[in-house]
Amino acid sequence: MIMEEEKKTQENFDDIEKYSGEYSDEKFWEKLKNIGVKAGIKVVYAALLLYYVVKSPLTPSKDRYKILGALGYLILPMDLIPDFLPVAGYADDLAALTWAIYTVSKCITPEIKAQAAAKTREWFGPFDESVLEGLL
Hints:
Elements lengths: L1 H12 L11 H15 L1 H15 L5 H15 L15 H13 L6 H15 L12
Helix pairs in contact: 2-3, 3-4, 3-5, 3-6, 4-5
């Protein structure tokens, strides 16, 4: 059962690059500002990790398109599970972000992790970083 769900999730994100047209820095920051508390620390931290990776000059172009696709998917208000649904609304967004993180994990440096954690703390205050386990 779990393997079938993982396979469906992978199929959903195989062509995630198609959402890259939805991405812009302005839309990204507006979305994070609006969803911060509702979506939670994991979604925000994952999005920030990818944001800082895509801004890094060391990130290969093929990885940038995957990241922009995942961030574009996050920005879309109506996706697989609409964001307005309580709790579940950001589950698919987190899945897309997590998929992208695993795909580009070689590009995530300690400096990028520190930047994402610092921005997350700026918005949420001190938090138990163990809640981020499983993202990397």
